[in-house]
Amino acid sequence: MLKLVIGNKNYSSWSMRPWLALRANNIPFEEVFIPLYTDQADKDRILSFSKAGKVPTLIDGDVTVWDSLAIIEYLAEKFPDAKLWPADRAVRAHARAISAEMHSGFVPLRSECGMNLHRPIRAVALSDDARANVTRIEEIWADCHARYGKQGPFLFGAFSAADAMYAPVVHRFRTYAIPVKPEAKHYVDAMMQLPAFQEWTRDGLAETLRIARFEDV
Questions:
Q1: Distance (Å, rounded) from C-alpha 37 to C-alpha 189?
Q2: Domain boundaries 89-200, CATH class
Q3: Which of 1, 10, 15, 103 ranks highest by number of CB atoms within 10 Å?
Q4: Global confidence as pTM
């Protein structure tokens, strides 16, 4: 069985992405939880799975894959029936492009609005760059809805790898009380109704470990 090494569900947005890709598609896997920013023993446990020293990491027999997007790509190849990427080449290219944009971009929003499910819902003053990130994400969601909305409520109709990449943003928008334009709000609603998203959220809220560096924002 596949193993997915993850960090705290309350904080680890990168762990959430491949976890959702697996759970939303009913792909069996063993979850290996290692708390982040605790002590050297936990750091060494993470290093025992991947020399990158970060989560998530996927273990499939003698194959080890680290980095969220690389894991999702591996899963798409291993489980083609899950249809993690759209079948149409042009649509698939679109899905990969916005997924890569999330993977490498939106740094101001990430920095100013770290994922923390326990955080009381309240707004913060965002920088111009972070506000531009919000606008761009809304634009992506609205554009996908206009193109593919007749096929389903997610970015490309059915739940896909792109949705796994954007799911943590829904939590950030909620936690930091970031208003979402009507043409993009449907996506927030669809994601929050996804059973796998709800499961991750429940598990994250049930965690008691607090990381001080993420509680001051």
A1: 32
A2: mainly alpha
A3: 15
A4: 0.95
